[in-house]
Specification:
Helix content is 33%, strand content 26%.
């Protein structure tokens, strides 16, 4: 049985002549531990899809995460589901300005009426490079540090699924790649599944699969052939020419259902 299953999922805003079909008949499964990138033009339904999977909105069809049918839950059940099973990382960091780094990370656990295990908190702070920033307020942090806090918050309650919506969108190339490396390492270490929305072809190429949306429908769902993964994860960053060639050279192989890359360096 798949870890995550979407069956005939749709989302419509408005009615009649003013109806907007944000998602239409979306079907796919995700295995536990898989990293899936979701790409597409603005307005294609990417963020709406994440909101439905995370139980932040309701739609048509069925979404099942392990044994939980998300759309069949009552509002209070969905709130508990979001806190315990899903970790969210957004483009906007959404940190509470009057809380410290440590307190922001602990929020999902505190909302669940529990206290975060000190050993796990120390482990997260160490992994994210925030140990010496634990008492700082968000205004005292750089953009990259704020996103590290957001990742820590997403991991705080040991969720089985991480949903990331343009997590590097507000960061420069170097900080963006550092955040992606941290996110991937954390997800791997804690045996989690990652669904990530991005416009960056290099970041999408780090995933196991790339799902492309167009006008609310799945245009393609392909596995990724990693020719640059070793280079990226080792922080041997591709320069701007490499990134341009990579973006231009992505082509879909319909026979093998992989993305082959032209012009990139072999890692």
């Amino acid at each position: 049985m798949a870890f995550l299953t979407l069956s005939h999922v749709g989302k419509t805003y408005g009615k009649g002549d003013t109806a907007v079909h944000a998602l239409q008949d979306v079907n796919f499964t995700v295995e536990k531990g898989e990293f899936v990138a979701i790409v597409g033009a603005s307005g294609s339904g990417k963020s709406t899809l994440l909101h439905l999977i995370g139980g932040a909105d309701r739609g048509d069809g069925d979404i099942t995460l392990e044994d939980d049918n998300i759309f069949s839950m009552k509002d209070k059940e969905q709130a508990v589901f979001r806190r315990r099973k899903v970790g969210f990382v957004f483009q906007e960091y959404n940190l509470i300005p009057i809380l410290t780094v440590e307190e922001n990370i602990e929020i999902p656990v505190r909302l669940d009426g529990k206290k975060m295990q000190q050993e796990y908190l120390e482990k997260l702070l160490n992994i994210l490079g925030l140990t010496d920033r634990r008492g700082h307020l968000p205004e005292q942090l750089s953009g990259g540090q704020k996103q590290r806090v957001a990742i820590g918050r997403a991991l705080a309650n040991h969720p089985s699924l991480i949903l990331a919506d343009e997590p590097t969108g507000n960061l420069d190339k170097q900080n963006g790649m550092e955040i992606m490396t941290l996110l991937m390492q954390s997800v791997k270490q804690f045996s989690q599944t990652l669904l990530l929305v991005t416009h960056d072809p290099v970041i999408a190429g780090m995933a196991d699969r790339i799902i492309t949306l167009s006008d609310g429908k799945i245009q393609s769902d392909v596995k990724v052939k990693h020719t640059l993964s070793g280079q990226v994860l080792a922080h041997d960053m591709p320069d701007s020419d490499d990134m341009s060639r990579l973006s231009e050279g992505m082509e879909l192989s319909s026979d093998q259902s992989v993305l082959s890359r032209k012009g990139g360096k072999n890692g």
